[in-house]
Specification:
The protein has 3 domains: about 5-125, Serine Threonine Protein Phosphatase 5, Tetratricopeptide repeat; about 130-195, Immunoglobulin-like (Sandwich); about 210-325. The protein has helices spanning about 5-10, 15-25, 35-55, 55-70, 75-85, 90-105, 110-125, 135-140, 210-245, 260-295; strands at about 130-135, 145-150, 150, 160-165, 165-175, 180-185, 190-195, 305-315, 315-325. The relative contact order is 0.07. The radius of gyration is 35 Å and the shape is elongated. It has a 4-stranded antiparallel β-sheet with strand order 3-2-5-6, with no helix packed on it. Strands 4-1-7 form a 3-stranded mixed β-sheet. It has a two-stranded antiparallel sheet with strand order 8-9. It is of the alpha+beta class and about 325 residues long. Helix 3 (about 35-55) packs antiparallel against helix 4 (about 55-70).
Length: about 325
């Protein structure tokens, strides 16, 4: 096992111009950590080393990451890369190994540079790669943002293979007044995925506008209420016709009715069937309307789910068919 003090030794070895080079690579203008932060960073680093030896990556990696945040150092970053590699986050590990190699070269640390370069070279064949291609007409859009898993992708990285971790990722491309592009992918170890961004069409309306699906939800709801109202009206009319039919029967016995009463009863039955259809179709539309509303895609996002609700009436009764695109 490498001694936990490797973190401190890595710092002690940096001096003069090498020290300034490392600071520059870490980011200009950052304030020096306080003694309390340095002590906490060392404690977290030591805990991380113990957990790393035990292969408890889920617990070790956050400790290295927080130690690096509090008091950045090549030794900590190298151990964080090792931790990511052990946890299967291969793209994250590769990026850190390459950063350590570059920082070590700038600091004149040939031993650390060679060590990080060897680990990066051995890891590269296993790393998944993602290339995001953006056509020229899209790349010129004002305010264009390309994100991978909520992280901005620099314009210099577009069209180039990016090292990613195995597993699911989401690419989102947005621009003001343009419909957003969103694509989910599943990267695998050693695989390569290319995402080609299409032309971004105009956004479907501005702030406060309703999407076509939400308008459809309002229409379906209104039709449902109308159908239920019609069902109530037809039901009342059917009851009235049935009363008239019974009045033409001897003692209201249906087997002893006049021809006119029988005809009136047939009309009442048709009205009753119409009332039933009105209630069934209306009820289905009332159920469908809120579902249509809630599943409506954002007016600035493409590729969202959509549903179609198709009521139908047949000899065996009424039904509603649901068709969707997900």
């Amino acid at each position: 096992m490498t001694s936990p003090s490797i973190r401190l030794r890595a710092r002690a070895a940096l001096s003069g111009g090498a020290f300034l080079a490392v600071l520059a690579s870490a980011g200009a203008g950052l304030g020096a950590p306080t003694q309390a932060e340095i002590d906490q960073a060392q404690r977290l680093f030591d805990e991380g080393m113990t957990l790393l030896e035990q292969k408890s990556y889920a617990e070790a990696c956050p400790r290295f990451a927080e130690s690096q945040r509090l008091d950045p150092g090549m030794g900590t970053k190298y151990r964080l890369a090792e931790c990511h590699e052990g946890a299967g986050r291969l793209g994250s590990a590769l990026r850190l190994y390459l950063e350590v190699s570059a920082e070590a070269k700038a600091a004149g640390r040939a031993d650390r540079e060679g060590q990080a370069s060897l680990r990066a070279g051995a890891l590269k064949p296993r790393v998944p790669w993602l290339t995001i291609n953006v056509p020229p007409e899209v790349s010129k859009l004002a305010g264009l943002q390309v994100k991978r898993d909520d992280e901005l992708v620099a314009s210099s990285e577009l069209g180039a293979p990016l090292a990613v971790d195995p597993g699911p990722h989401v690419v989102v491309v947005t621009a003001p007044k343009r419909a957003a592009f969103r694509q989910s992918i599943q990267s695998v170890e050693g695989g390569t995925i290319v995402v080609t961004v299409p032309n971004l069409g105009a956004a479907n309306g501005g702030a406060g506008s309703l999407s076509g699906q939400k308008i459809a939800a309002i229409v379906v709801g209104a039709v449902g209420l109308g159908a239920i109202g019609a069902g109530i009206g037809l039901g009342l009319l059917a009851g009235s016709r049935w009363d008239d039919a019974l009045a033409g029967c001897d003692g209201e016995v249906v087997t002893q009715c006049s021809d006119a009463a029988i005809a009136e009863g047939a009309k009442a039955e048709k009205l009753a069937n119409g009332s039933t259809v009105g209630f069934v179709v209306g009820g289905a539309a009332i159920v469908a309307a809120p579902i249509l509303w809630l599943t409506a895609p954002s007016p600035t996002e493409t590729g969202a789910a959509s549903l179609r609700f198709i009521p139908s009436v047949g000899p065996e009764g009424a039904a509603i068919a649901i068709r969707g695109r997900f």
